[in-house]
Design goal:
alpha/beta; Rossmann fold
Amino acid sequence: MSYYSIIVIFAKKARGAVVHRFMRNSDTSDHMGRGGRWGGAILAVGLPRRDEPELIDAPGLADAELLENLLDLSMVNRLGGGVWLSTWAVRRFVQSAQLTGAVPAAAFVQPAAWDVLDVGCGIGDMPRAFAGRVLAVDISPQIVRMAAMRGGGVAYAAADALRLPLADASVGVAHCSFTLHHFAPPQAVALLRELRRVARHGVVLNDLLRSWPGLAGAWLLGHLISANRLTRHDGLASARRAYTLAELLAIAHQAGLRPLAVRAIPGYRAALALA
């Protein structure tokens, strides 16, 4: 068995154990308690947010280097629970809409009819995980081209997340993963407002959580799984730029959104269904 295979197996087992143990008590924002909503802030004590530029946002990157970085991020999404968190949040949004009667139940009889917009799509691993008609956008035409080459029945377009070329309420759910931390607080608020503008039912936000364990993990993973320059630099920069769960909830509140459901992996990542 190769060294890489051992790392992958260990990561899957560790992620599964942590997620299972924590999720039992953190399904919704109304039932999260100190260990869920606020306890994660303890892990970020003495670690202020630093808005460091990330190399992936720079123009003129070589295709080969950028593609390798995007594939690294895709692997982190799969092994680290990112895809699972997002698909859970979208399903939870649908279930809540049915229970409250906000949307006719008949609209969800066929999951393939559910529309999702994915903003900041990267290589397209997230949008390909969603059922139905999915539109994925990224501000980088280079990234959009790479994602589109991988197919998967997803429509791709280059677009600015702060000025989406979409009509009001033109998609079912707007999804944003691994993207919000690229924005300073005022722009993050503007982003969530723009996502809510185009979404009929709500927004799913999935992002890193700033913490000391997360910072250490970013360094460790960057050196274990990849020699890519972007992966190693941006992993640490993202860990420093990330918000805490309390900060994410505050940004959502400023954007006029309320948490319908929240699920988190302590010190690492959280998904919020916002209405």
